[in-house]
Amino acid sequence: MAKVNGSQILARALRKQRVDTMFYIMGGPMLAAESACIEEGIRAIDVRHEQAAAMMAHAWGRMLNRVGVCMAASGPGTTNLVTGVVNAWADAAPLLAIGGSAPAAAAGRGQFQEMDQVGVFKPITKWAERVLDPRRIPDMVATAMRQAVSGCPGPVYLDMPGDVLYQEIDEDQVVYPDPARSQARARPTGDAESVREAIRLLERAERPILISGSGILWSEAWDELRRFVELAGIPFYTTPQGRGVIPDDHELSFLTARSSAFSEADLLLVVGTRANYVSGHLTPPRFRADAKLIQVNIDPGAIGLTRSCDSGIVGDAKVVLKQLAAEGEGRLNPKRYSAWVKHLAEIDRAKTAQAEAKMSTDQAPIHPLRLCKEVRDFLDRDAILVVDGQEILNYGRQSIPTFVPGHRLNSGAFGTMGVGLPFGIGAKVARPDKQVLVLHGDGSFGLNAMELDTAVRFKIPVVTVISLNGGWTGDAKREKPGRDLGYTRYDKMAEGLGCHGEYVEDAANIRPALERAFRAGIPALVNVKTDFRARATTARFSVYTT
């Protein structure tokens, strides 16, 4: 009887669960497993820091609505995954992290890199377990994949002791579960009476708004969302990474009027997003205390979490939006909200004109908003935009639209700096046919800057644009401790790693530099010197920031 070891079983189990890409750093006891994965046809991209592996897998999964996979060696290799994993946890993004670990048979005897890795990951994952028998590897991989996508998505962790990976068993003892079953996503239907009550509330409202989040993306409910918005004639807003589910230039999108919309709305219809700080907890002062609240979420725990809910609907966003549209057909009249829509449209037009004037400045050093304008005007309509930093994150979210579902990534609900370049690489691996541009602050860029080397080695032509304001944040008086980083020539660093590099000090030269960067066909970095005095006035912790 042929023999197989745990490493081979792990690789085959992943491949049978339709895993075709993973991000990792080599190391024991995972070396044989990583080799086996490559032999099974899995594309294996080795990175320069494990947190970047988790971040790349996260972005890859968001692009394809699949479970991203990352892998690390034992001890510090695995703990380096933590920042990327907790970021996925805060973003409710499906991710499978696999960590090698010290042999299980001698647990507690002070082995090399021995620690409770499962205990580290339990609080920041939906599910974390240790494999103790190689025969259990296939079903535990299948369970991990199912846990990652069931209900509210999220990361999971699988711990692989060295002795389990090295152990040989008879091949006929191994059973591989059917991926069609292990990865099937349930689509629960909303309670019919709650749906009817939601429509009754909308019939009585005068100034409703709809707020959606990433739940629309995971449910692939953008067509249903657009149909309902247009049926009801209701203005809509999304969380930043939910941008593009309906194009930002839709006739019911009034981005620059969001503050007025939030503070004046008499009804909030919240679909597929949580009531955390990102959404202002749906409470005053951002929202009216007497505003009616309808919540749609696949997670029952998200309903009524921060304020009383007038209609709470537990269900899949795609299914519930279909129910709402069916119930609202013939009952919801868009003309009812015409005065409200006109009011928001007027505010939006006025603020947009003011913003455009600010963005058109030719000042030197370059204002970050002018940089954003050049990026906005250059990008294809279906480009994937990643924004990471402080000032540039705020300016970017104010000024650069998104038109395609899932094509906007940023620091997320955890506010994790350093995601930019890894997210860009993961997105480009998933969508090689799309423009991918990473708009980075110089501080946040430094956290994972060596991933330029990863992009070069794997010929991933992602373009990074740095807002080089000399430090961690805008500071007109330069008084913040630890703020200054200097005006580093990151373009020269990029060139040294094999990238195309550009340095820009004149706003008129930004677009030509972008054109050359994308034409280069290799990883590229455009280093744009911006004004350190420019300070984004919008609070970082707002519904459009993370």
Secondary structure layout plus pairing:
Elements lengths: L2 E3 H11 L4 E4 L6 H9 L3 E4 L3 H15 L3 E5 L3 H4 L2 H10 L3 E7 L15 H5 L5 E4 L6 H13 L5 E7 H5 L1 E3 L8 H4 L9 H13 L3 E5 L2 H5 L2 H11 L3 E3 L19 H7 L2 E5 L20 E6 L13 E4 L2 H12 L9 H22 L8 H11 L5 E5 L2 H9 L8 E3 L9 H11 L5 E6 H6 L3 H7 L5 E6 L21 H7 L3 E5 L5 H10 L4 E6 L17
Parallel strand pairs: 2-3, 2-4, 4-5, 5-7, 6-7, 9-10, 9-11, 11-12, 12-13, 14-15, 14-16, 16-17, 17-19, 18-19
Antiparallel strand pairs: 1-8
Helix pairs in contact: 1-2, 1-7, 3-5, 3-18, 10-14, 12-14, 16-17, 16-22
Please give a structural write-up:
With 546 residues, the chain is α/β, with parallel strands linked by helices. The protein has 3 domains: 180 residues, Thiamin diphosphate (ThDP)-binding fold, Pyr/PP domains (Rossmann fold, 3-Layer(aba) Sandwich); 154 residues, TPP-binding domain (Rossmann fold); 170 residues, Rossmann fold (3-Layer(aba) Sandwich). 38% of the residues lie in helices and 17% in strands. The chain contains 22 helices and 19 strands. The strands form 4 sheets. Strands 3-2-4-5-7-6 form a 6-stranded parallel beta sheet, sandwiched between helices. Strands 15-14-16-17-19-18 form a 6-stranded parallel beta sheet, with helices on both faces. Strands 10-9-11-12-13 form a 5-stranded parallel beta sheet, sandwiched between helices. α3 packs across α18, α16 crosses α17 and α16 crosses α22. The protein is globular. The termini are far apart. The C terminus is likely disordered.
